[in-house]
Design goal:
It is a single chain. The protein has 292 residues and is mostly beta strands. It has one domain: Beta-galactosidase, Chain A, domain 5, CATH 2.70.98. Helix content is 4%, strand content 42%. The chain contains two helices and 20 strands. The relative contact order is 0.17. Bound molecules: 6-O-phosphono-beta-D-tagatofuranose.
C-alpha cells in the first residue's frame, strides 16, 4: 500500500469535498476513508483537528489525523486494525454545500491484497457518514444498514485527532469512576480513579458506558483554557488515546513531536459488538462544539 503527500497530489484532481456553512464554518472530507481532515469552526483561523505533516493521502491509505472511521472492527482482530472502511473509497450521495455532505460505502473497491484481508467479514452492508458543520460545531453520524440475508455483528468508532497546544497539559473530563480497558496493560480492566485523564505519555484506553458529554480541556500556562465539548449518541463507549513519543517514532506517518500536538477522544461501540438483523439500521453520532 503506498500513498502520496498532499504536495504530490497537487497536480491531480484532489479527492475531497468541502462543506462550507454560511457563517464560514467548514469541513474538508476526503472520499478515501470518508475521512474529515479539516474542520474550521466559524471564526476560527486554524484547523481544529490535528493532521500530521507526514500524513499520506490516496487510495487505500488512511490519513494520519482528522477523523478516521473505524468499521466494521475497532482495533485489532480478524480484520486489519480498525477494519476496512478507512481504506475504502466512499461515494458522495448528497452534498448540500452550505450544510452537509452524505457519503456512502456499500462495497469496498480495494486493491486485491486488501480484498483478501476483508474476507473475515463477508457481509452485504450499507454504511453512510453524514458530516455537518455550522457555527461552533461539527457533527458526524455513522449509519449502518444490514442489507444481507443473515444477521451480522460489528464494532465501530469515530476516531478524531483533536489539535491541542500541549498534550502534556491537556485533560479529558467526565470519565471518573468508569471501568476502562487499558491496551497498555494487555487489555486489563481498571476503574478510573482520577478526576480527569491526563496525557503524560502513551495513553490507550476504552472506557465502557461513558457519558454522552465529555470535555477536552486544552490548557497552556499563561493562556486561557479552551474547553472542547465532545458529545455522542448511540455510541456507548469512549476511547482516549495519545501515542506518546514511542508511538509516533514507530509510525512512518507521524513526525517526531506530533504526540504533543494531539489527543484522540473517540466515540465507539466496542465492548459489546452491535448485532444487526437483516434490514436493521444502527446509528451513532459524535458532535463536537468549539469554545469561543
Ligand atoms: O483508538 C486508539 C487506537 O486503537 C490505539 O490503540 C492506536 O493504535 C490508535 O488507535 C491508532 O491506530 P492506527 O492503526 O491508526 O495506528
Amino acid at each position: 500500500m503506498s500513498g502520496a503527500t498532499l504536495g504530490e497530489l497537487a497536480d491531480v484532481a484532489v479527492p475531497f469535498v468541502d462543506v462550507e456553512a454560511t457563517d464560514g464554518a467548514m469541513a474538508r472530507v476526503y472520499l478515501d476513508g470518508a475521512q474529515v481532515a479539516e474542520w474550521r469552526p466559524a471564526g476560527a483561523r486554524k484547523n481544529a483537528l490535528f493532521v500530521s505533516e507526514r500524513a499520506q493521502y490516496g487510495a487505500g491509505v488512511s490519513i494520519r489525523g482528522g477523523i478516521p472511521v473505524c468499521f466494521p472492527q475497532f482495533g485489532p482482530g480478524a480484520l486489519p486494525q480498525h477494519g476496512f472502511a478507512r481504506h475504502c473509497r466512499w461515494r458522495v450521495v448528497e452534498l448540500v454545500l452550505r450544510e452537509f455532505v452524505l457519503l456512502e460505502l456499500a462495497r469496498c473497491d480495494l486493491p486485491a491484497e486488501w480484498l483478501e484481508r476483508t474476507a473475515a467479514w463477508p457481509h452485504d452492508f450499507q454504511a453512510q457518514l453524514r458530516v455537518q458543520v455550522g457555527g461552533p460545531s461539527l457533527e458526524l453520524t455513522l449509519q449502518v444498514t444490514n442489507i444481507d440475508s443473515v444477521p451480522f455483528a460489528f464494532t465501530a468508532a469515530l476516531h478524531p485527532y483533536f489539535a491541542v497546544r500541549d498534550a502534556a497539559a491537556a485533560q479529558v473530563h467526565g470519565l471518573a469512576g468508569l471501568t476502562y480497558r487499558d491496551a497498555l496493560a494487555g487489555g486489563a480492566e481498571f476503574v478510573e480513579q482520577g478526576e480527569s485523564v491526563l496525557f503524560p505519555g502513551n495513553v490507550d484506553r476504552v472506557y465502557y458506558s461513558a457519558p454522552d458529554v465529555l470535555e477536552l480541556r486544552d490548557a497552556v500556562p499563561g493562556k486561557r483554557e479552551r474547553v472542547l465539548r465532545i458529545e455522542k449518541r448511540g455510541f456507548p463507549d469512549a476511547v482516549v488515546w495519545n501515542p506518546g513519543p514511542e508511538g509516533t517514532a514507530s509510525r512512518a506517518d507521524f513526525a517526531p513531536g506530533d504526540e504533543r500536538q494531539m489527543v484522540c477522544v473517540e466515540a465507539g461501540a466496542i465492548r459489546e459488538p452491535v448485532v444487526l438483523e437483516p434490514g436493521g439500521v444502527w446509528r451513532g453520532t459524535q458532535r463536537v462544539v468549539w469554545p469561543f
